[in-house]
Amino acid sequence: MRLLTAIITALTLATALDSDFAFAPPASGSVLSSADRSATSEPLAIVVNQSNPTDNLSLAELRRVLLGGRNYWSNGRRITVVMRDPDDLERKVILREVCGMTEEQLKNHILRGLFTGEILVSPKILSSPAGVRKFVFNVPGGIGYLRLSDVDSSVKILRIDQLLPEDKGYKLRIRSQAAD
Amino acid sequence: MRAIHVRGMAQAAQIFALSLVTLLSGPLVFGQQASDESAIDKPTLQLLLARISELETRVAQLEAEKGPADAARLSEALPRTSLTLRADNRQTVLPGSAGPNTVYSESGQMPSASPEPEQPQADSAMAERMDMSKTLLRIRGFGDVSLHGDTQKGDTTTFSLGQLDLFISSDVSDRFKFLGEIVFEAGPSSYFGVVQGQENEYNVDVERYLMQYTYNDYLNVSAGRGHTAIGYYNTAYHHSSWLQTTTDRPFLFSFEDHGGILPIHNVGVSASGLIPSGRLGLHYVAEVGNGRESRTPLVSSPVQNEVSDLNHKAFNLALFVRPEALRGLQTGISVYRDLLAPLNAPTINETIIAAHAVLIRPKYEWLTEVLLDRHAPTGTGNAFNTPGFYTLASRQLGSFRPYVRYQYVNVAKNEPVFPDVGLRYGPSIGLRYDATESVALKLQYDHTSMRGQPGFSGLDMQLGFTF
Amino acid sequence: MKADTSKKRKVWSPYHLPFLVRHLAAGSRYDGIFLLLIVSSIVATVAVFVIRDLQASNMEAQIMYTGAVRGLQRIGELQYDTQETRRATLYALTTSDSNLQVEYADQSRAADLRVRNGIAEYALQANIASKVKLASRLNLDWTHYLHIRDEVLASILEGSTREAVSLDLTGGVPAFERVRQDLNEVKRLYEQDAAERLNNLVASSHRSMWRLLAILIFTFLLSLAAVWVIQRGRMLSTIHLAKLQMEFVASVSHELRTPLAVLSSASDNLADGLIHEESALRRYGAVLQHQSRKMTALVDQILLFASTEDRRNRYILHPVDVAQVLDSVLESTAELTKKDGFIIDRDIQPGLPLVSGDPLGISQCLQNLISNAVKYSGDERRIAVRGTLERSDRGSDHEVQISVIDKGIGIDRSELTRIFEPFYRSPRVNGLQIYGTGLGLSLAKRIAESMGGRITVNSGLSTGSTFVLHLLTAKEEGQSTASEGVQHARQ
User: Which of C103, C108, C153, C158 to mutate to test the interface with A (most CBs of A within 10 A)?
Assistant: First the structure.
């Protein structure tokens, strides 16, 4: 019993000191400071099909959607998540800012989800922004992410926490440099 | 004067002759042109129309050849002649076929398009539906090999093959999904302390066999054999050791054929889904099934796959929340009710109450579950409570993940169902190293203390992998 | 006059002439080439219309041909693109790579856009009710198929291939079949259209051919008529000329016969020895002399006329005193004029400059004019001869005008130009029993023109005639210019 208590206490202390341990919303402070934001950074827009009735998602909801916690839109259409290739900058930003995972952790998460039956279908991988756009255009339940400059009128931009990509305070931004 | 008159007439006659020649040649030339024009038009039109027909036929041919994989496989299955005939010659009438066949072939469809009962068509349609390549059956394998040694009397240091788990999933349709786990494992089964089967002998278990139907986020129904939603560990971890952090499951959640005390598996129907609760993220699971085999000594598998020993069914209800406020947190409670009917003993009302709180984060995880298994034999007024818990914590450090676990279960000596378990408790400490994204090496040290028996330590080195 | 001529015409054309030919014959009076010009212009105008007609039918054939090619091309493209839409959709089933699937989806959408454009084009060009209806039906069916196609594509991209296949089989195939049948209908209507246009074209080409044939026949007939007219004109003029020559021969014979008769009777008398007295002998001799001179003069005149036929006639021009010449002429014709009791009024302007000419020629000219004046004076016995210096009508030079004026029977206006034709004698004077060769005036005109001058006439019926000989003044002393008579001579 004593041993147990000791172990638990130690762990609690360790986790309390952990910078990773934070109460909601975890991704509030993005890596970029406001000064950086004015530098060469571009908003990352979350896009869905034009027929999707959803207009807004909170960051937590977006995370749930992307990680397979939610499988259907409100109009009954199945959610199909579209991701980019593992090396793409956009994907890295999404993993970091929204999912809070590394590639490997995401892979494990998806595998586990498929294994338990919680996740119905793993995300689709597309190599180019045009591919993401076309996919979301063709699939009523599709959801993906694009740089704002890659978005066109064929897809619909979602508000994240009531903010559009152009608005101040929009959290998902991508820096044009390769450094992540 | 007459001479002049005659000469004038002669000249006139010459001019007449010339004019006649010109006159006659005119219409001939003109007529030639006209006929040429009409000659050019008609054949050209015919030619162009014939060309279109050719193109149509060619398109139909290409479709038949280069269409989706189905068509190719189809042509292997069916007599080749019928396909090519249809593609090439629009006018061909197949034996016993009616007009619609040619119509379909003209449009270049796969021959299976027709719902006609005509023999080749029907066959092709059936072949189409049964075409295995069209199913999205996916098999994912898990396995492990370990080297185990402990201080318990009678145990040897041994290499052992863990469970070879074939995880099968198939997207049968948009809403139906098949999930299955077929496990090959070696070694005897141990049910409530009773050892069955030969050592080192492989046998196959269908551990999970589920058809899942998804209606929406609020309702998912699955039928078949799956893991009972008791606590957290049972539904989060199935038969893959690679997926779990430690080398083995907590003994509270051991599999039935490894001496486990809980009804890990259930054969029945389960419904689960979200309960609209905003940021709370409330989920539910409701199950009904055959429950656990309750005859002791067992004559067959404890999981009642085919025949239930009682009409009474087992029920389970679980609720858990995943609040948005704290990412990665899940906490919940479950209640399981069943009626056991051991041989030559009164029936036992089984109630299992479990509560859990887990925090799974990318860098660390922390799992804690507490469980109470209550057996109340009918008519006696007694109740045997078996408490148990475990707690597991681990931290990711690069590719290494050290972990520590403490577990406890206390079974009363005179427990009617599984008296052999007794009191067990002890820590485990280990390190997991992810060599690659599919291979993990684990080293774990356990110390288990027991009631009335000397405790023992064990060291386990396991190579877990997925393929 | 007209009665005469018609009588004469009837002599030469014994057959009954139809209305058109009579008018054509009337037209033959006029220049045959002018008539030919009229005919040619009529034919040219009609030919222009025919050519226009031919061009129009040729243009229609071209339009029809290109329209046919384009129409078939459009139908072919429509059919191909509909197949392409479906094909590209199903190709997406062959791969599980989302990138490729999206590419196929793109191909399918591009093809269906082409189809929609093709259908819209067809609808725009639909000009009959059946086509309009067909276009809207095709559009509906295609839209319906596209809905199914979109669902199939979505299912494929989502990964639900079974759904996609079954949806395509149950929904896509019948929908596509309807589209295909609509396209077949389009083709059928098009073929109908083409056949109709072909028939129209054949009919119009036949029409043009018949029209051209009619034009050619008409042209041929018209040319025949023109040729006939020209030939007839020539024939008539030849006949006329022959007639004039006959008249001339008759006239000459008559002129010669009178003095010959006198000579004959006088010589008979002398030969029979009926004349003894000297005075009678002298008288007879004078008569013989006179008559033979008259005959010689006539023969000279004829010979002179014949010589002036030769275009190479040359006069050597000298400066000539007109008054002198005139006086000599009056002297030589005094016998003729005095005998008949004519009074010649000589009125010559003093100080007339010298004229450029040949004295012999001028005197011959004047002799003719004066003898004409005598012959055609009728009852009047006064003749005036004037010589004046006037301004020339041509240019700024002066000219000498010698006028011979009589108050005789005059000349009809219609014959003023004809009297200078050789052998021409007015039917009027023949009727009045005044005989002559018809050469005098033509000779005088020739001589005047060969000297660089001219003769003009002014006359009125029964009021007399004024003949004026215009002569150019001599430019230099001793000018001797050989002039070709051909310059002003008329044939």
Answer: C158
Domain end position, chosen among B101, B130, B159:
B130
Burial C31-59 (b: 16+ CB within 10 A, else e): ebeebbeebeeebeebeeebeebbeebee
Tell me the helices (H) and strands (E) count for chain B, helix number first: 6, 19
Q: How far apart, in whole angstroms, are the C-alpha atoms of residue C133 and residue C120?
A: 13
- How far apart, in whole angstroms, are the C-alpha atoms of residue C456 and residue C450? 15
Alpha-carbon gap, residue C291 to C304, rounded angstroms: 20
B170 and B122 in a common domain: no
pLDDT in tens, B326-369: 888 999 999 999 988 877 778 889 999 999 999 998 888 999 99
Same domain, B121 and B199: no
Distance CA C54, CA C204 (A): 9
Return d(Cα C245, Cα C213) in angstroms, integer. 47
Clarify whether residues B452 and B366 are in a common domain. yes
Using CA atoms of C392, C393, C397, C400 in order, give the dihedral in degrees to the nearest 10: -10
User: Do B324 and B426 share a structural domain?
Assistant: yes
3 state DSSP class of B123 = helix
Q: Looking at the structure, tell me whether residues B221 and B110 fall in a common domain.
A: no
Q: How far, in Å, CA of C181 to CA of A12, rounded?
A: 74
| C229 interaction partners in chain B (CB closer than 8 Å) | none
**B37 is in which domain, residue-wise?**
2-130
Tokens 């060009």, residue located: C125
Write down which chains contact chain A via at least 3 CB pairs under 8 A: B, C
Domain CATH code at residue B216 = 2.40.160.10
Mean pLDDT of the B80-93 span: 38
The answer to whether A96 and A26 are in contact (CB under 8 A) is no
ipTM: 0.78
Render each residue's pLDDT in chain A as its tens digit; 180 residues: 666 566 556 655 655 555 444 444 444 444 444 444 445 788 999 999 999 999 999 998 999 999 988 889 999 899 999 999 998 889 999 999 898 888 888 988 898 888 888 888 889 999 999 999 999 999 999 999 999 999 999 999 999 999 999 988 888 888 865 444
Task: Say yes or no for a CB contact (<8 Å) between B437 and A7.
Answer: no
In this structure, the answer to whether residues B332 and B221 fall within a common structural domain is: yes
Tens of pLDDT, residue by residue over B375-385, are: 998 888 889 99
* Residue A180, both tokens: 């992540």
Cβ <8 Å between C98 and A142: no
Burial, B88: exposed, middle or buried (Cβ in 10 Å; 0-12, 13-18, 19+)? middle
Report yes or no: B278 at the A interface, CB cutoff 8 Å.
no
